[in-house]
Automatic annotation (TrEMBL):
Lineage: Bacteria, Bacillati, Actinomycetota, Actinomycetes, Kitasatosporales
Keywords: NAD, Oxidoreductase
Comp. bias (Basic and acidic residues): 147-161
Region of interest (Disordered), ranges: 147-167
SMART domains, alphabetized: UDPG_MGDP_dh_C (SM00984)
Protein name from the UniProt record: Nucleotide sugar dehydrogenase
InterPro entries: 6-PGluconate_DH-like_C_sf, NAD(P)-bd_dom_sf, UDP-Glc/GDP-Man, UDP-Glc/GDP-Man_DH_C, UDP-Glc/GDP-Man_DH_C_sf, UDP-Glc/GDP-Man_DH_dimer, UDP-Glc/GDP-Man_DH_N, UDP_ManNAc/GlcNAc_DH
Species name: Streptomyces tendae
């Protein structure tokens, strides 16, 4: 139930393991894209999709009544936040209600969508009980949080451990058996709430450390140090440290959203988490700080914003994906455009992008146009930055500070650097 960035790879892994799979999604466009193979997947999963589409054991539909024919139902729908950074449970509530409506005795129902602690009981266990289906007796119910790192071939779901929290021992065993072929190992935890909190803890940990990395990077700049060598030096310690790198902010489906589910639930209980709240606020402010830094560089070059031509390299939230959800690039582009700059972007994975009331299109040959400033936001594997290493190249603002221009210069066989390269 749900064939997005989690649901589709999960469905393909289950099909690859021999299961007959019915993929349900309420978006006709998404179903059409999957049928055409026009989806953002790793090469491995594209191969799985081609094999599944050519066989008889993989069917796509928008009909939720297909749930009745299933032995197991896996719910994989998005759990974003709204404009106030509060949980938007619209899709999750609707999906769970639909599954409950069509559930039959003997089924296994597994929720994978990240949400607040207690979601599985609130949206599945109790509504099923109201229908006369008792969890762990008439039906099995479990929570198994998704663990997918889009665009990263080293962290495919099949190579990643999976957690399962069942509504009882039968539910835990059934869910673990179902998901075993889709993960490197499956670990059961005492109950759904433990698994739900573990998922929130994972991504809150990342959000806090990203904020810390950005803050310490700023401290390095004020002390005349480059952050990357400092981080790499600290990472030589084999315990007690994990490297996090500075960047333009956080994006995607997890880090900008999941911790807010925890804060929202704690707030309802009048419980504070000031460290987490401060970190999330810092992450939210980061794109605006990058925008200010870019405008400052233009001012230093005596280029008024209304006369400035600014290019962003990459607009996806991370390398190797076409996903722009919550991408800091959206706010940076909007901020620069709001200041009067003529903005554009180069990202072959994102053909077009909506920024405010305007639609921007990928610039395929940026080296043929003059720019006053180039902002390195997300350097995709297909990007060629050697043109930025020429002596007459425009000024460059590197938001991630991972040395892409140095690597480009090495490929170009030259030690040249742009006219000005700064980090943010």
């Amino acid at each position: 139930m749900g064939l997005g960035y989690v649901g589709l790879p999960t469905a393909l892994a289950l099909r690859d393991a021999g299961a007959t799979v019915i993929g349900i999604d309420n978006s006709a466009d998404r179903l059409r894209d999957i049928a055409r193979g026009a989806v953002d997947l790793l090469p491995l999963h594209h191969a799985q999709l081609a094999c599944a589409s050519a066989g008889d054991g993989f069917r796509l539909t928008s009909d939720a009544t297909a749930v009745r024919a299933a032995d197991a139902v896996v719910i994989c729908v998005p759990t974003p936040v709204d404009a106030r950074r509060e949980p938007d449970l619209t899709a999750l509530s609707a999906a769970c209600a639909s599954v409950v409506e069509h559930a039959v005795a003997g089924q296994l129902i597994v929720l994978t969508s990240t949400s607040y602690v207690g979601t599985t009981r609130d949206l599945l266990v109790e509504p099923l009980r109201a229908r006369g289906l008792t969890a762990d007796e008439d039906v099995c119910v479990a929570f198994a949080p998704e663990r997918i790192d889009p665009g990263n071939e080293d962290h495919t779901p099949e190579r990643t451990p999976r957690l399962v929290g069942g509504a009882g021992p039968h539910s835990a065993r059934a869910a673990a058996a179902l998901l075993a072929p889709t993960a490197s190992v499956v670990r059961t935890v005492p109950d759904p709430e433990t698994a739900e909190m573990a998922k929130l803890w994972e991504n809150t940990y990342r959000a806090v450390n990203i904020a810390l990395a950005n803050e310490l990077a700023d401290a390095c700049h004020s002390l005349g140090l480059a952050p990357a060598p400092v981080i790499e030096a600290a990472a030589t310690k084999p315990y007690g440290f994990m490297p996090f790198y500075p960047g333009p902010g956080v994006g995607g489906h997890c880090i900008p959203c999941d911790p807010h589910y925890l804060l929202w639930q704690l707030g309802k209980a009048r419980q504070q988490a000031p460290l987490v709240a401060t970190a999330l606020a810092a992450n939210s402010d980061r794109p605006a700080r990058i925008t200010e830094r870019a405008l400052g560089l233009l001012a230093r070059a005596a280029v008024p914003p209304r006369d400035a031509r600014v290019l962003l390299i990459g607009v996806a939230y991370k390398e190797g994906v076409a996903d722009v959800r919550e991408s800091p690039a959206l706010e940076i582009l909007a901020g620069l455009a709001g200041a009067g700059a003529d903005v554009a972007y180069c990202d072959p994975l994102v053909p077009s992008l909506r920024v405010g009331a305007n639609t921007l299109h990928h610039v395929p040959h940026p080296h043929t146009r003059p720019w006053d400033l180039v902002v390195l936001h997300t350097v995709q594997p297909v990007h060629d930055l050697t043109w930025l290493c020429a002596a007459d190249a425009p000024s460059v603002l590197d938001t991630r500070q991972r040395g892409p221009l140095a690597r480009a210069a090495e490929r170009a066989g030259s030690g040249a650097r742009p006219a000005a390269e700064v980090t943010a």
